């Protein structure tokens, strides 16, 4: 009797112990991954990343979790521009436009990947010094790469002369991809796709897989392939320094392409990268965005990108571009709205009616990080003042982003208050973006002002409790 009782006790204790052990191990993935700067979240076939306690933010380092963004692969990217090698957005304008937020994100993701590449082993790289056609108006013979290569590694880099075309034949997929600086008489067919390179002679930096899939509007069936290469043109034609598979080089050049476009397309007077797409917000036909509009999020992310450029170059022109980028955030109402006529907010989508606001949460937080980055390398009292004002606003406004009906979930904006529309619940990915942004700010303020850091911590705890 006693003996059996003891055994029962033992089993009971063991079960409690196992139960606790299981709980500790399962509840807290942050503990498990304490080495990695990111905590992985698996949800519906996708892997997302929020920040972990070992993530540290600085103005030269990775930008949040953007190393894991693949901007060019997004559906909203129509294709990669043929002159600037930057993404063309189809958002709100199906035939495409250059959207500064997307371009800044493209630059920031490639910058962040450079840091990642240092840790990961690079793939095999193939090089051809110089390719030329055999005779006038003819093609070279085919150059073959012996290995079967992964299409995810088809980063290609070369310099090409005018009136030339460089042909890549993908054998398994039976696709021919042509980069051409000729006036094109060739016909595209189902298996032949042509990229009309502009601005020749020039250096080209492309990801062939993206080019093919964007042009064909479908994903390729074979993910590994054999490649043959050929150049066509007159006797002057040549392709120099053809490199296939150097991801670091691709990321570097993509970073520079984004910064180059931003530096060349900033409105010098206002500092804005104006967006000329006509747009209503969501279903509000009577609330138009300003036209053209200046987005606080674009200004902030572009500033964060140019701060990283400036950390490499120390070029005064780049510093001036950063000052101009931040200018519309503090010196005018171009990107502002006031909550309850009192609390300053930086608008991702400023409305025509200056008295109305949308208060998109992620846009304002990205803008804030841009201001902090700028103020770190180029301290200005008026920027510190602006940062304080936004913190005070967040103290008052953050409570309104807690979803009234879904426990510990967040709202995307406050249009239900300012425009009496229905609740704009954050999607899963925006809810995670809110957490990531707040985690980044918590970390930044940890050293500066602990009470501000605790403010962010409160919402991080709350919002993560809904997903972990
Ligand atoms: C996840 O992937 C499986 C298999 O590909 C698919 O059947 C399922 O619909 C996907 N689930 C979601 C939520 O996308
Ligand atoms: C390219 O070809 C066209 C037509 O043959 C010719 O007029 C032009 O001069 C060529 N350009 C260069 C840079 O060779
Ligand atoms: C790849 O490109 C980077 C950047 O230009 C360069 O530093 C590196 O040496 C290249 N790797 C190889 C294996 O050529
Ligand atoms: C912005 O608008 C607010 C509120 O309408 C006003 O008090 C302020 O003077 C304006 N600021 C600038 C720089 O125009
Ligand atoms: C939220 O809950 C309130 C009260 O329970 C209800 O009246 C309202 O319709 C709900 N809103 C949504 C968007 O579900
Ligand atoms: C921290 O920030 C809060 C809110 O902006 C402010 O009231 C407080 O004075 C700051 N504390 C320090 C030590 O700067």
Portion in strands: 15-25%
Counted up, domains total 2
Distance between the termini: 44 Å
State the name of the first-level CATH class of the largest domain.
Mainly Alpha
Q: Structural class, from helix and strand content?
A: alpha+beta
Bound small molecules, which ones?
2-acetamido-2-deoxy-beta-D-glucopyranose
Radius of gyration: 26 Å
What does this structure look like?
The protein is of the alpha+beta class. The chain has helices at 2-27, 29-32, 100-119, 208-216, 247-264, 296-313, 316-330, 361-377, 381-397, 415-418, 428-446, 450-465, and strands at residues 38-43, 46-51, 77-80, 87-89, 126-131, 138-139, 143-144, 149-150, 155-160, 164-170, 175-180, 192-196, 202-207, 224-225, 227-233, 239-244, 280-281, 284-288, 336-339, 343-346. It has 2 domains: 46-119 and 253-465, Glycosyltransferase; 126-245, Jelly Rolls. The chain is 39% helix and 19% strand. Strands 6, 7, 10, 11, 12 and 15 form a 6-stranded mixed beta sheet that branches. A 4-stranded antiparallel beta sheet has the order 5-16-9-13. Helix 6 (296-313) runs antiparallel to helix 7 (316-330). The longest helix has 26 residues, at 2-27. The two termini are 44 Å apart. It binds 2-acetamido-2-deoxy-beta-D-glucopyranose (6 copies).
